[in-house]
Amino acid sequence: MSSRFLFPTLLGALALMGLVGISAYLILQACALPILQDRVSSCRTPQAISTAETLQVSTLRNTDLQRRIFELERELAALQCVKAPPDPNAPLTPEGWDNRDLAMLYGCWDLDSTYRTRDVDTGTIRTYADWQMCFDLEGNGTQTMRADDGTLCEGTVRGAFQGEGLSLIEPGNLACDDGGYIHQRQISCVPAPQGRATCDTLQPETSGKAQVGFARAPS
User: Fold this and answer.
1) Mean pLDDT throughout 156-173?
2) 176 and 121 in one domain?
3) How far is Cα 107 from Cα 195, in angstroms, rounded to an integer?
4) How many Cβ atoms are within 10 Å of 83's Cβ, its own excluded?
5) More confidently predicted of 31 and 152
6) Which residues partner with 211 through β-bridges?
7) Burial, 90: exposed, middle or buried (Cβ in 10 Å; 0-12, 13-18, 19+)?
8) Residue at 85 is within a domain
9) Closest CA to 155 of 135, 176, 138
């Protein structure tokens, strides 16, 4: 009698073990699914790898460019900006007079009227057809006068706005290369047409007066 129940019991045990195995497999599969998905998602395509490498190169290049910009800005900050001088051939302008701008004198000027002097000891009269003044940006300058007999007189002069006019100030008598000199003058200039000026000169010691034009010297 016992042999009849052995086979069905064995089959049932085997079936039960199979069910348990299948259930365990299904449970493990369900648990492993997220892990499998993570593994799949972590695998990058060649295109993604290329894009990442390009981004890295661009980031490094951007860092280098920022460093170079910083270096250039530091070099620029160390530079001293120098204002360009005005045109040494420019005429006098109403704006320059209104602003009392001595920089408009920059360059050389001809005092173009014939200027004459008389030697107080000998009475000799000399004509100075060549009279020139040259100034820097601050109105400091030099002047030369050459007489018709070749005598050369040289000295300093300074421009300054006084009152409504421009004064050309001599520090003293103008020395000449023949041992003589031209008495110190008071020179006052006012604007004239075409970028020129008209200057009145007065020698206080001799009461000598003259009027001369003041215009750009040919370049």
Assistant:
1) 95
2) yes
3) 14
4) 7
5) 152
6) 200
7) middle
8) no
9) 176
| pLDDT tops 90 at residue 215 | yes
176 or 47, which is more confident: 176
**Residue tagged 């420019």 (tokens):** 90
pLDDT mean over 59-88: 79
Encoding tokens for residue 76?
A: 């620029």
Compute and round to an integer the Cα radius of gyration of the chain. 50
Which position has the higher pLDDT, 71 or 98?
A: 98
Whether 65 and 158 share a structural domain: no
